[in-house]
Every structure is written in C-alpha cells, then in structure tokens.
Amino acid sequence: MRDEEQRVAAEAGPTQATGRGEKSEEQSRSLPLWLVVVAVLALGGVVELIIYGYLERPQWIGVADKKFWDFLDLLIVPAALALGVYWLNLRQEIEREATEEALKERDLVVENRRAQDAALQAYLDKMSQLLIDKERPLHRADPGDKLSTVARARTLTVLSRVDGDRKRSVLEFLYESGLVVMGHEVVDLREADLGNASLSEANLSTANLSEATLSGAHLSGADLSGSKLTGAILSSAILSSAILREAKLIGTQLYRATLSEADLSEADLSGSNLSSANLSGADLSGTKLREASLTNAGLSEATLSGADLSGASLLGTELRGANLSEADLGRTEEELEQQAKSPDSTPSLEGATMPNGYKYEEWLKAKEGRRKDGENSGPS
Q1: CA 34 to centroid of chain Cα atoms
Q2: Exposure string (b/e) for 70-101, b if CB count within 10 Å is 16 or more?
Q3: What is the distance in angstroms between the CA of the first residue and the CA of the last residue of the chain?
Q4: Cα separation of 224 and 228, whole Å?
C-alpha cells in the first residue's frame, strides 16, 4: 500500500510542481496587492496634503504663489519614471520567460528524438536476436503462432511511437528480413501505424501491407509492384511516379491520394475509393476498377486502355485527354458523357479517346450525324 501511495505521489509531483510554476509566473507578471494599496494610499495622501495646504495654509507650506497644477507637475515626473521602470522590468521578464520557453521546447524536441532513437534501437536489437536465435529463428515462425504474435506486438508498438523517417527504418528492416513478403508473412501489419511514413523510392515489391494505415505517407517513386495493399488506408498519400504494377488494392482507401504518373497497369483496384484522387498521366491500362469510386477524380491524360470500369462511379471525373480505347465502361458512351461532367456541367472528355477508338470530338460529330440522318429519314 505504501509503495502504491509513493507511486501516485511521484506521478502527481510533476503536476503539482507545474501548478506552482504557473502560479509563480502569474505572480511575477502582476504587482503584489499590498504594494498597489500602499502606492494608492501614499499618492492620495500627498494629493490631499497639497490641496489642504494650497487652500487652507498656503503660507505654511511656503507655496502661496503656486497653483494646483504646479504640484501635479512635481508628481508626474516621478510617476512616469516609476511606470517606465516597471514597464522595462515587465518586458525583461516577458522576454526571459519567452527565452526559457523556447529552450524548453528545444530540449523537448531533442529529448523526443533521443527517445525515438532509443525505442527504434531497442526494437531492432530485440528483433535481430529473434532472427538469429539458433533454436527457433523468427523467419521460420508460422504466421499467427506465439513468436509471430510477439513480433507483431513489438512492431505495432514501436510504429506508434516513432516518426516517418524511423517508420521507414522499421518497414525496410521487416522487408529485407523477409518478414512481410507475400507468401511468408511472419509479421502481420494489419492496423499498423505507417501514417506519414517517409518511403519515397523505397523498394517494397511483393510486400504485404494489407489493412495497414498509410494515410499521408510519402511513397513517390516507390516500387510496390506485385504488392498487396488490400483494405489499406492510403488517404492523402503521395504516390506520384510509384510503381504499382499488378498490385492488389482491392477495397483500398485512396481518397485524395496523389497518383500522378504512377504505373497501375494490371493492378486490381476493385471496390477502392479513389474519390478526388489525382491520377493525371497515370498508366491504368488493363487495370480492374470494378465498382470503384472515381468521383471527382482527376484522370486527365491517363491511360485506361483495356481497363475494366464496369460499375465504377465516374461522377464529375476529369477525363480530358484520357485514353479509354477498348475499356469496358459497363455503360454506353452517352452515359459516360453524362457522368463525366465538370462543375460547370460541361463534359470533361475533351481530347479523350473513346472506347471505340474515336476521339471525343470525332465521336460527337458521328453522333450528331446519326441524329440528323434519323431526322431526315423520318416521316415527311
């Protein structure tokens, strides 16, 4: 019981100290009440004495030829000096506190970095020991067994404590150790916190990152070909020029993600959320986009030849200059024209290659010609 009380007291100590520190800061910024009272009383007494002497006994104070404002002049100078000194002291105190606060913040940043480095090093040391264990090395563990569960727990814990650069170190260690490669996923990264991870140009080909959280992650130029990202969260992630060829992204959240110039050829994005994503110039040839949401997505100059877009939402999708030749839209070209409209209600298909191989403008002319031929052939 005594130990528990000591522990609680130790935890409460910093809080109490902080409270006393805040109180002392407030006191340092304000004048003591007794000093204010004494100053007011003293000033009032002096003013009363001057008024009394001026009106009742001018000869007694030897200032019969002085006016009341002359006495006030005598008080203004010292009062101004006193206020000036107080203001300077207050400014110095504020500057001193600001400097101390900046130093504290810098110390906190340094301490936080040290703590993250220590946590990362401890993780790498422990995982390395598990990998080289002679009796039962980690890489021989079966997914879901006790050793694999321990490794997963350690991984999820360290990922929640470190920043983007250190998250890269953790993921690269797991990948290069063969612990998150498809076909032998010793460490399950479901629900792993890889948000804002710095993974630009990283080699993660055939990695299994299913259901991991990668929102805001930097993956520009990364090689994720053949990887598994089913159910992963990549909202607002940066994947410009990334290689995702033949990757499995079924049901993946890619809301507002940047995928410009990315290679998504032959990838499976069925049921994924690509709303407001930037896919300009991306290669989506042969990509499966069944039931995917492309609402307000930017696909200008993208290659969608042979892509499967059946059931996909294309409301407000930008398709200017896109190549849709031989794409399966699951809808007529007229329906595509109605869905793919810009905010001003004009079709955003200018320069696009339609599924039949015609440019959008040529397709419009042909459609208009068919309409006129139908009118001409009607009853006179």
Answers
A1: 51
A2: ebeeeeeeeeeeeeeeeeeeeeeeeeeeeeee
A3: 104
A4: 8
What are phi and psi for residue 299, nearest 5 degrees? -120, 25
Task: Decide if 320 contacts 301 (C-beta within 8 A).
Answer: yes
Backbone angles phi, psi at 292, to 5 degrees: -80, 155
Angular region, 240: left φ>0, alpha ψ -120 to 50, beta rest:
beta
Confidence of residue 232 (pLDDT cuts 50, 70, 90): very high
Tell me how long the chain is: 380
Strand partners, 268: 248, 288
Under DSSP, is residue 357 helix (H, G, I), strand (E, B) or coil? coil
Rounded Cα distance between 181 and 206, Å, is 6
Question: In this structure, what token pair is assigned to residue 350?
Answer: 């200018």
Contact 253, 213 (CB under 8 A): no
Please provide residue 76's backbone torsions phi and psi, each rounded to the nearest 5 degrees.
-65, -45
Is 60 exceeded by the pLDDT of residue 156? yes
Are 215 and 193 within 8 A, CB to CB? no
User: Which segments within the chain are labelled E, that is strand?
Assistant: 180-181, 184-185
Neighbouring residues of 297: CB distance < 8 A, sequence distance ≥ 6: 274, 275, 276, 277, 278, 279, 317, 318
pLDDT higher at 115 or 25:
115
What are the angstrom distances between the C-alpha of 211 and each of 30, 164, 188, 206, 302? Answer: 55, 18, 10, 15, 27
pLDDT, one tens digit per residue, over 33-88 is 665 666 667 666 666 666 666 666 555 554 555 555 565 566 666 666 777 777 88
Q: Supply 7's token pair.
A: 């522990």
pLDDT of residue 84: 76
Other C-beta atoms lying within 10 Å of the C-beta of residue 61: 15
> What pTM was estimated for this model as a whole?
0.71
